[in-house]
Write a structure and sequence with these properties.
Radius of gyration: 14 Å
Number of helices: 5
Number of strands: 6
Oligomer: single chain
Largest sheet: 6 strands, parallel
CATH architecture: 3-Layer(aba) Sandwich
Order of helices and strands: EHEHEHEHEHE
Helix content: 25-40%
Shape: globular
CATH topology: Rossmann fold
Number of domains: 1
Strand order of the largest sheet: 4-3-2-1-5-6
C-alpha cells in the first residue's frame, strides 16, 4: 500500500472505529461529543473516519457539526476503502455519505476499486495516521474488534464509548 501522509501531525490526529449497526443508546452522542471536545482541548484537531454506515457516519457528522458551531479548528479526513463504497446503499444513506464527503477537509482512498482486503487496509490506515482512537466496540469479532486490537498494538490511546 502506498503510504498515506496527512497535512497534520500524527500526534494531533484521532481516528474513529465502531459498528455499522448502533443500538438505541441516548448516551452515545453526548459521550462522543464530549470525547471530541476533550481531545480538542488537548490539541487533537484532526479526526479521521472510514466512511462506513453506523458509527463512522455518526462520528463524521459530529465532527462537522462541532466544527461549524464551536470548534472551528477541527478537521475531518475521510479515509475510504474505494470510490464506489456506497454504490449499493439506500438513497438516503448515499445522500448523507455524499454530504459528509463534500464537507470533509480531505478524502483519501486506499484502493481504486473493491478488493477483498480494501476494508482492512482502510482500517489499518486510520490507525497508522493517528495517535488516538475513539471506539464504539460491543463485539469481540469483526472489523471493529480487529481495528481496536491493531490500535492497541500500535500504542494508540483508546477512548472506549
Amino acid at each position: 500500500m502506498k503510504e498515506i501522509t496527512l497535512p497534520f501531525e500524527r500526534e494531533k490526529t484521532c481516528c474513529f472505529t465502531g459498528h455499522r449497526t448502533l443500538p438505541f443508546d441516548p448516551t452515545l452522542l453526548p459521550n462522543l461529543e464530549q470525547s471530541i471536545r476533550d481531545l480538542a482541548a488537548k490539541g487533537i484537531t484532526c479526526f479521521c473516519a472510514g466512511g462506513a454506515l453506523g458509527f463512522d457516519t455518526l462520528a463524521a457528522r459530529t465532527v462537522l457539526r462541532l466544527k461549524a458551531t464551536e470548534l472551528a479548528e477541527l478537521s475531518l479526513v475521510l479515509i475510504l476503502p474505494y470510490p464506489d463504497q456506497a454504490s449499493q446503499w439506500s438513497k438516503k444513506n448515499i445522500a448523507a455519505y455524499e454530504a459528509i464527503k463534500e464537507n470533509a477537509d480531505q478524502v483519501i482512498y486506499v484502493s481504486q476499486k473493491y478488493d477483498f482486503m480494501c476494508m482492512q487496509r482502510r482500517n489499518r490506515c486510520l490507525v497508522d495516521v493517528s495517535s488516538h482512537c475513539i471506539c464504539y466496540l460491543r463485539h469481540k469479532t469483526g472489523g471493529t474488534a480487529y481495528t481496536v486490537r491493531y490500535a492497541k498494538e500500535q500504542g494508540l490511546s483508546l477512548l472506549l464509548l
